[in-house]
Design a protein that fits this description.
By secondary structure, this protein is of the alpha/beta class. It contains 10 helices and 5 strands; from the N terminus they run αβαβααβααββαααα. Helix 2 links the parallel strand 1 and strand 2.
């Protein structure tokens, strides 16, 4: 069984786009807010490899890929095309489970690969109720058990990072991870969040044009997903991706990221200070 992965142009590599962007200029109205979010995601990544699950956080990935371009840290960013939201991510058939495992293996996320990792691996996504993370975690745990992999080793490296809609802070504020039993299986601080304004969360999660369709279980074995989309939505999504990557390479955005990093608690740790120096030195 061969892995199948949805096609997405590699804007960091400079894929030839021809006339795809003709008539599709892009000027984000939320660059400052997105930059702050991206910087906090980086600061809360526990010195690990970031895997952006699905499509919702594409813009965070694209901006960070520009910020980290030409640094030793650009290889830490990965996209994990996968939809396991809600009931659609539950009750997989045997064939679907096998297909999911093949695709995860192609992303270097098999139990054997996870156990052998030196750094943490961090799944990042926009989160409402946490069903995607819940379904992904259960699938990973079942696979680890089937493979008799070293769970105690893997659990020490796995992280979940939710991008949530900002709410008023109070002792009674509900957080998605509070009612997830599986969170207790992990070390403290393995599940963290970055909050953003509700309007930005809704735009990224619900309204922003994307370059690919949601990679739901019905498409996991469909070779058509490997063909580039050239419809209007895909071209607008591509224009946004290219622009955000280019913005991430600018001095102004990198200085903003550096400023946010210095205000994060993790800045006391040498790994984050090293990243900050690498960003500012470009």
């Amino acid at each position: 069984m061969e892995p199948i992965r949805p096609f997405r142009w590699n804007v960091a590599r400079g894929d030839r786009l021809g006339s795809l962007l003709d008539g599709h200029g892009y000027e984000p109205l939320y660059l400052s807010e997105l930059t702050e979010c991206a910087a906090k995601v980086l600061a809360r990544s526990s010195d690990g490899d970031l895997y952006f699950v699905g499509r919702s956080a594409d813009s965070v990935f694209d901006l960070l890929s520009g910020v980290l371009a030409d640094t030793p840290y650009d290889a830490r960013l990965h996209q994990l095309p996968l939809s396991l939201y809600g009931l659609d991510g539950m009750g997989l058939t045997g064939e679907e489970r096998a297909r999911l495992r093949v695709n995860l293996t192609a992303s270097d996320l098999s139990p054997k690969a996870l156990a052998a990792r030196r750094r943490p691996f961090v799944f990042a996504d926009l989160v409402l109720h946490g069903s995607t993370f819940t379904n992904l975690h259960h699938q990973l745990c079942d696979w680890i058990e089937d493979e008799r992999a070293a769970w105690n080793v893997i659990r020490a490296k796995i992280r979940y990072l939710g991008i949530t809609a900002r709410e008023k802070t109070s002792p009674n504020t509900w957080r998605w991870q509070q009612n997830k039993d599986w969170v207790a299986q992990l070390p403290g601080r393995a599940v963290r969040n970055v909050s953003i304004e509700g309007w930005l969360w809704r735009y990224l999660g619900n309204d922003q044009p994307k370059t690919a369709r949601s990679f739901r279980r019905t498409r996991w074995a469909d070779p058509e997903v490997t063909v580039p989309r050239r419809d209007e939505e895909a071209r607008r999504g591509l224009a946004a991706a290219v622009a955000l990557h280019q913005y991430g390479r600018t001095r102004g955005v990198r200085e903003h990221v550096h400023e946010v990093l210095t205000g994060e608690p993790a800045f006391r740790e040498s790994w984050l200070r090293d990243i900050a120096r690498a960003i500012r030195g470009r």
